[in-house]
Amino acid sequence: xxxxxxxxxxxxxxxxxxxxxxxxxxxxxxxxxxxxxxxxxxxxxxxxxxxxxxxxxxxxxxxxxxxxxxxxxxxxxxxxxxxxxxxxxxxxxxxxxxxxxxxxxxxxxxxxxxxxxxxxxxxxxxxxxxxxxxx
Length: 135
Fold this sequence. Notes:
Helices cover 59% and strands 10% of the residues. By secondary structure, the protein is α/β, with parallel strands linked by helices. It has a five-stranded parallel β-sheet with strand order 3-2-1-4-5, sandwiched between helices. Helix 1 (6-14) crosses helix 2 (19-32), helix 3 (39-48) packs across helix 4 (52-61) and helix 5 (71-86) crosses helix 6 (95-107). The longest helix is centred in the middle third of the chain and has 16 residues, at 71-86. The protein is globular, with a radius of gyration of 14 Å.
């Protein structure tokens, strides 16, 4: 099971510059197993659409399932947020970023994201799948 970050989904929905790479990556991951979103990503996707019904419909159309955060993931996210602040983090990173990373690390086998440097720094051992945008 692979998690997907909201930025990749929004690229797909908006048909932006990264949409083709995101679609290829999503298809490859779906070919290998299931792709899921956690609570945070579901909420972020919903804000980009008309309502929750549309968000669920779009995800279902893409064959993406919902995987709720477990307590262990929420706790890890809080620990990583504390570490971020102790390192001098200036609120650029908020709890949702850490929740997505902890969910992917503890409940999934990897994360499709465009933000590899952040997740690599705070979630050691998390397999990152970055859509490769053609130049």
